[in-house]
Specification:
The chain is an alpha/beta fold and 498 residues long. The chain is built from 17 helices and 20 strands. Helix 1 (18-29) packs parallel to helix 10 (228-241), helix 2 (68-76) runs parallel beside helix 17 and helix 5 (127-146) crosses helix 9.
């Protein structure tokens, strides 16, 4: 990547999250001089690890889905993802339990699934195969869209989008889409709850995202040995081996501009000039903090304020005496009144007395994550993003008790007496400690008014020499999608730099 003078192009990446690290690898391969600035003391962002007393937890994502995208990025820099980061494909993928009764040990074996579905609703046997066949076609139609930049309304004339349009059904929610296949409401939720990966209710999420559940059953749910954070850590090691400079505990304190062009970013240690800047920090938080409102045309503070944001998460990381070997690796519990639970999160902005929740018990797959004879449980409860209705200083202790009580629904009634280590992250912590706007852990919501060209563009439209990567830009949230954003952004940036 040489200019006419033979000088390598300089790129500064702000944030060492999965999108920033994947971008660093690709730009280094193209012979850019790449520097990554990370405000925290470790790489990974929300996909980092929490380590204490011999326990290791993923901080954020624990599901590793659709490894094809990252495998292709690794291949493009001469590496083999599965050799660099050993992974196990899980079966069952996860256990679903329902407050209304019943459980599913979800497997990619459709015959096993139909045997379980029969106990819920004999009329729904065979519906899963029909769903899989339809979504195989749907993904094939939408893949070119998810892999292309959308920098203006003209991009809506993309032939791939026109070809996919008959599969879009914009007025149909994900829940309504699944009701076309399954008559039992529990089965509808079993294949629609994946909208929570986007921080949305399945009854608000666009029907396009029926492909999320399809991806799990078609391509597997994987566990990287060491957790999802191990992927980020290995990417950082590879980037360094490729010549990328990664500076930890070095937050950006100032941004220098010439008109609307960013020319440098400063930290307490140094000022970094560059030909291009890639922002992998939380989009709304970073813009509001670092770019003067007058310099932004489309994404002013008042516009950011009006946007729809995802839910947040209340997190417990529990180091325990003993093991729960009867509990699968991933466990999702759907509350008895799921629609009420969703309404409390998204509309009423109050804490549920009977929440849905997710528990990871990774020790049954990966014994490296806890001391011998002990186990680490990761507990996630979807909750409202930051809202005046909830005061986490007052509500934190009460909601801990509600959460621990709720775990008895999956057989963890003795958990309190086993706890030897405990760490908690609330939406207030996501906002203040992790610099996430409103603590909305899945970024801008993925409604139809905030997708494709309506999201902040990969080549950021309000500033010059600035590019975006991560869940806040196109295509959106979720690890495979964030990795795809890094490919889109890297191609645009390299093209612009000649």
């Amino acid at each position: 990547m040489n200019s006419r003078s033979g000088k390598r192009k300089k790129v500064v990446i702000v944030g060492a999250g999965p999108g920033g690290l994947a971008t660093a690898m690709q730009l280094a391969k193209a012979d850019c001089d790449v520097t990554v600035l990370e405000r925290k003391g470790q790489v990974g962002g929300r996909t980092s690890s929490i380590n204490a007393n011999g326990f290791r937890f993923d901080c954020g994502p624990t599901f590793f889905l659709y490894p094809r995208v990252l495998a292709e990025i690794f291949d493009s820099v001469g590496r083999d993802l599965f050799k660099e980061v050993p992974m196990v494909r899980l079966d069952p993928q996860y256990r679903l339990t329902f407050g209304a009764g019943g459980k599913l040990d979800c497997s990619a074996d459709l015959q096993k699934m139909d045997e379980q579905i029969r106990t819920f609703s004999p009329d729904d046997v065979g519906a899963l195969k029909r769903y899989m066949d339809d979504n195989r076609v749907k993904l094939a139609k939408f893949r070119p869209i998810l892999e292309s930049p959308f920098c203006s309304t003209l991009d809506l004339l993309n032939p791939a989008l026109l070809a996919a349009a008959p599969h879009l059904h914009p007025l149909r929610s994900l829940g309504q889409e699944l009701e076309r296949y399954f008559s039992d409401p529990r089965l509808v939720i079993a294949f629609a709850f994946q909208s929570k990966y986007l921080g949305m209710s399945p009854f608000q999420c666009p029907s396009l995202f029926s492909i999320l559940s399809f991806l799990e059953y078609e391509y597997g749910v994987w566990h990287p040995i060491g957790g999802c954070a191990a992927v980020s850590e290995r990417m950082a090691e590879i980037a360094r081996e490729m010549g990328v400079k990664i500076h930890l505990s070095e937050p950006v304190t100032d941004v220098s501009m010439d008109g609307k062009k960013v020319t440098a970013v400063a930290t307490e240690q140094c000022t970094y000039q560059a030909d291009a800047f890639v922002i992998n920090a939380d989009f709304a938080h970073w813009m509001e903090k670092h770019i003067p409102n007058a310099k932004r045309r489309r994404w002013k503070d008042e516009n950011l304020e009006r946007k729809k944001y995802s839910c947040s998460t209340y997190m417990l990381y529990l180091g325990l005496d003993g093991r729960y070997d009867q509990l699968p690796h991933h466990n999702i519990h759907i509350s008895r009144d799921y629609e009420r639970n969703l309404r409390e999160i998204e509309h009423e902005h109050v804490l549920s007395e009977e929440p849905s929740f997710y528990v990871q018990n990774p020790i049954v797959t990966d014994e490296s994550l806890a001391p011998p004879g002990q186990s680490g449980l990761y507990v996630l409860v979807p909750v409202s993003h930051q809202h005046p209705n909830i005061d986490w200083i007052k509500d934190k202790s009460r909601f801990r008790e509600i959460t621990l009580d709720s775990l008895s629904a999956i057989g963890l009634s003795d958990i309190r007496e086993r706890i030897r280590y405990e760490h908690c992250i609330t939406p207030a912590d996501w906002q203040h400690e992790y610099a996430v706007y409103r603590g909305a852990t899945f970024n801008l919501a993925h409604n139809l008014g905030q997708m494709l060209h309506q999201r902040p563009h990969n080549r950021f439209e309000d500033l010059k020499s600035v590019y975006l990567v991560g869940g806040g830009t196109h295509p959106g949230s979720g690890l495979p999608v964030i990795y795809e954003s890094s490919r889109i952004t890297s191609k645009l940036l390299l093209k612009d730099l000649g």
